[in-house]
Design brief:
about 425 residues, 5-stranded parallel β-sheet, 10 helices, 26 strands, about 25% helix, globular, binds flavin-adenine dinucleotide
């Protein structure tokens, strides 16, 4: 039983943190709930920052998890604009940037991730951008508008999800877009070369130029202004602005300094938590992008940077903080939208883990489901412009059963009959 005089503190005002605070109240916790975030904006969702909001189709207000007044109504003490700079596990307290010390009985770390910076000369020029925060999206939206108006060039380093989504938004404004990617296809480590080719074609059909197999080595500028980028094949490409979309790193500094166990880099790094999202300190939990979970279904450590994981692991951690039995075994899930292509991906099939890719439907028309299999067992499935199948795809992943690949490829065989 958790007593009503306890204080539960959440560090990180993103989706995982906000949903955890909300769940503490929904589960009837009547002690203090304190949500600490270093951004000035109250908790918001990040997917629209590279899609609807960036492209100008969605209003800024639509991204917030709740209106500001909701937090006061739920008696959640929201402190924004101050980073938590230290964690004292002996005193059970955290210190904010302004020196304020906050005691906790239970603590949740939901500090998310931060964009990696390009390790090249010129990375500090004003025209080099990253995309993680709402403030970044505000700025990039203005940049794309003026690039579109002036026929300007955006160079994107990295053909991952964010790079591709920003490319689609930028083409919508009419900007010239060049993507530099060291691998031979986009999303190489997520969907593999077979499926990656579909994304190359999609973006080329919309006028995006790709340079695969090369690395960006320098951003050339003058008086703070970007003029071009250079790649390791000796080429120079015109650029007015550059987006570094080369991945994100979990924000673990607080946890590491406080001596919490970290997951190995080969397992994705981040704060190591068990299936109940508890860290190596029984009073401290972690959720969202920063947490590396001993995943009961996959039988492996897993850290993912997915919206659905923030949405679900925040509440799961809150329930564990309240002493409930929690086993966080959700099938990993994410989605993306680029031009008129929408997709959902369920499961986990990193490079080398699968021995077969099965396509169900018409990949040429970009209307299909792809499955990644190992020994005829479905590790992951991705539905592209095919809808209302997520539950069936996840059931196939969850069942772990051997499935006839021919039946899987045949759209006349209902997916529900296979799991
Ligand atoms: C542009 C973009 C588009 C995306 N699109 C998709 C998508 O289409 N589909 C999908 O599945 N996923 C998508 N994602 C990923 C998804 O948004 C993340 O997985 C999700 O935001 C993670 O939530 P989180 O709460 O764990 O972390 P975050 O959202 O990063 O929130 C963590 C918060 O903690 C704060 N913080 C960190 N350290 C401290 C500290 N010491 N003190 C105080 N505060 C701190 C951070 O500033 C931040 O506000 C996208 C991400 C981005 C950036």
């Amino acid at each position: 039983m958790v007593d009503a005089h306890q204080t539960f503190v959440v560090v990180g005002g993103g989706l995982a943190g906000a949903k955890a605070a909300e769940t503490l109240r929904a589960e009837g916790f009547s002690g203090r709930v304190i949500l600490l975030g270093d951004e000035r904006d109250h908790p918001y969702e990040r997917p629209p920052l590279s899609k609807g909001y960036l492209s100008g189709k969605e209003e800024r207000d639509s991204v917030f998890v709740h209106e500001t007044a909701w937090y006061a109504g739920a008696e959640i003490e929201l402190h924004l604009g101050q980073p938590v700079t230290a964690l004292d596990r002996v005193d059970r307290s955290v210190r904010l940037g302004d020196g304020t010390v906050v005691h906790y009985d239970k603590l949740l770390l939901a500090t998310g991730a931060e964009p990696r910076r390009l390790p090249v000369p010129g990375t500090d020029l004003a025209g080099v951008h990253h995309l993680r925060r709402l403030a970044h999206a505000d700025r990039l939206r203005k940049v794309l508008t003026s690039l579109g108006r002036d026929n300007g060039h955006l160079v994107i380093a990295g053909a991952g999800w964010i790079g591709l989504e920003v490319a689609a938004a930028a083409r919508g404004y009419g900007a010239e877009v060049t993507i530099i990617e060291p691998e031979p296809t986009p999303l190489h480590h997520v969907v593999g070369p077979e499926l990656g080719q579909i994304f190359t074609q999609l973006h080329q059909d919309h006028g995006v130029r790709f340079h695969f197999g090369v690395r960006l080595t320098e951003i050339v500028g003058q008086d703070g202004v970007v003029l071009a980028v250079r790649t390791d094949d000796g080429e120079e490409h015109p650029a007015h602005d550059v987006l570094a979309a080369i991945g994100a790193a979990p924000r673990t500094a607080l946890a590491e300094t406080a001596g919490l166990a970290m997951a190995a880099r080969k397992d994705g790094g981040g704060i190591a938590v068990d299936a109940s999202l508890r860290t190596s300190d029984p009073h401290i939990f972690a959720a969202g992008d920063v947490a590396n979970v001993a995943h009961p279904l996959l039988g492996a450590r897993l850290r993912v940077e997915h919206w659905a994981n923030a949405l679900n692991s925040g509440p799961a951690a809150a329930r564990a903080m309240l002493g409930q039995d929690v086993s966080y075994d959700r099938v990993p899930y994410f989605f993306s939208d680029q031009y008129d292509l929408g997709l959902e991906y369920s499961g986990w099939a990193p490079p080398g883990s699968y021995d077969q890719v099965v396509i169900r439907g018409d990949a040429g028309k970009r209307e299909f489901i792809s499955f990644w299999l190992k020994d005829q067992r479905v590790l992951a499935g991705m539905n592209v412009n095919v809808w209302d199948v997520t539950e069936s795809v996840q059931e196939l992943v969850r069942s772990g059963r051997q499935i006839d690949p021919d039946a899987l490829a045949d759209p006349s065989v209902p997916l529900t009959s296979l799991s």
